[in-house]
Specification:
The protein has about 450 residues and is mainly beta. It has a single domain, classed as Porin (Beta Barrel). About 5% of the residues lie in helices and about 50% in strands. It has four helices and 19 strands. It has an 18-stranded antiparallel barrel. A hairpin with a 2-residue loop joins strand 9 and strand 10. The protein is globular. The two termini are about 35 Å apart. The N terminus is likely disordered.
Length: about 450
């Protein structure tokens, strides 16, 4: 590898996590204690250095092999005045020691970003005894339901924030409602030179994109099972210097999750549909709206074995529609702001699988053989839903469809261990993706063998 030098710069500790329902700091740590643990104040943070390596790159036009060193520092705090809260989060994500031509972008580097700053008004017993109601305004991160439509990924260094208003309600029985109208931020910087230099360039709220809708969770829909329903609209227009596909559609879905009857079996079923209109391209000359008709489904069934080590075995399936050029509709599923780590494996230098144009089935196992340690292993096969569309997050495509629909198989492993409980956590993981016919023979595929990826991370909480 031909490694180019990187400009060194100081890191600012950051992580202002808010307790408005979207992310929360952990147990009171050294920073909270150092401030005397004052009443009303919750503050904490973390710093996570991580090393990633990849070989057999799947992305067209990127380096066959690469390495990336990142440091993500977060500080989050909130002050509760009693019925009124102010909070914020500062996040500093920087990258080093990677080659020119690496797949590093806004999800990897975002230096010294004021990610969250918000105010919240709280009330109790407004609708029923024991309930809690919050009105939240400002810029926040969002993690709703499973996070498959709107989520805050923990693996990524940099995440989306949203500016606007939210209403959150929770009953004494655990039922929850979320209503929102927000505008996503455009993460900055976006050019390769500024990212390489870890340039400080604050994210910009994009008022030409509006995200709005509601999510409801019934805590005990069926004994042991929670039910969720939701609908979120996205309205997008061109802005100065930025052309878009003018997406204007609704994403709605339903989910059933939990342990039926409180037994050893657990399930997670979610069905998502998108309808509305968009345009075939972002070209300013493209003024033709086409109908959107896209789907995604996830299913998982697990079984916990009552034995030392707490093993759990599970099977799963994912299906996301691809776009069929023979129809007038746009059938490719739009992943919107969903997180991927839990369903598809690590992102970062990897991130091969996603919810677009995919049919995948697999199995896995988790275990906790001793205190502070957990491990997970999964194996899955992956196919294209539509042979002429690009596969998942690869940008590999065969417009003729002659490369078939088998993308390959993925083996993913992850281990985590608390070196010091609630303070220092070590994480080691890796992926081996055996490329199938499509990723070996498509016109723009990299003919460089299977993809291998690994990472080591240490998170220090304070």
């Amino acid at each position: 590898m031909n490694i180019s030098p990187r400009r060194s710069s100081s890191l600012l500790a950051g992580f202002f996590c808010c307790t408005a329902g979207f992310s929360t700091p952990g147990l009171a740590g050294p920073l909270q204690d150092a401030l005397g643990n004052p009443d009303g104040l919750t503050i904490g943070g973390s710093i996570r250095p991580r090393v990633e390596v990849i070989d057999g790159q799947f992305r067209p036009g990127k380096n066959d092999e690469d390495a990336f060193v990142s440091i993500r520092t977060i500080v989050a705090g909130e002050y509760d005045f009693g019925g009124f809260r102010l909070g914020g989060e500062l996040r500093d994500a920087r990258g080093y020691a990677y080659s020119d031509g690496a797949s590093i972008g806004v999800s990897d580097v975002n230096a010294l970003e004021p990610l969250q700053f918000y105010a919240a008004v709280d009330a109790e017993g407004v609708i029923a005894d024991g309930d809690a109601l919050s009105l939240i305004g400002g810029r926040t991160t969002l993690d709703i339901g499973s996070g498959r439509v709107i989520g805050e990924p923990g693996f990524a260094n940099s995440v989306n924030s949203f500016t606007g208003g939210q209403l959150r309600w929770k009953s004494a029985a655990g039922d929850e409602f979320i209503g929102l109208f927000v505008m996503p931020s455009n993460r900055q910087p976006t050019d390769a030179d500024s990212i390489e230099d870890n340039e400080v360039d604050w994210d910009v709220t994009n008022d030409d994109i509006q995200l709005y809708g509601a999510h409801f969770r019934k805590a005990d829909l069926i004994p042991g099972l929670a039910g969720e329903i939701y609908a979120f609209g996205l309205s997008e227009d061109d802005s100065t210097g930025s052309n878009t596909r003018n997406r204007d559609f609704v994403t709605y879905g339903a989910r059933l999750v939990g342990k039926p009857g409180g037994g050893a079996v657990d399930v997670d079923f979610e069905l998502i549909r998108q309808t509305g209109d968009t345009r075939a391209s972002a070209a300013p000359t493209d003024l033709t709206d086409v109908d959107v008709d896209a789907w995604f489904a996830h299913g998982e069934v697990g079984y916990a074995i009552a034995s030392p080590g707490k093993p759990r075995l599970f099977v799963f399936a994912d299906y996301g529609t691809g776009d069929d050029p023979a129809t007038a509709d746009q059938e490719g599923f739009d992943k919107l702001y969903g997180k991927r780590r839990g369903d598809f494996g690590p992102t970062g230098l990897y991130g091969l699988l996603s919810r677009e144009n995919i049919a995948s089935v697999g199995f896995g196992a988790t275990a906790k053989p001793f205190d502070g340690f957990d491990a997970e292993a999964t194996f899955r096969g992956a196919w294209l839903d539509e042979k002429t569309d690009s596969f998942a997050a690869t940008k590999v495509r065969d417009a003729s469809g002659n490369s078939g629909d088998f993308a390959g198989t993925q083996l993913a492993l992850r281990t985590r261990y608390w070196l010091v409980p609630q303070r220092y956590r070590l994480e080691v993981g890796g992926v081996y993706f055996t490329k199938g016919e499509f990723l070996e023979t498509a016109p723009n595929a990299n003919r460089n063998g299977d993809t291998r990826y690994g990472y080591v991370a240490l998170t220090a909480s304070f």
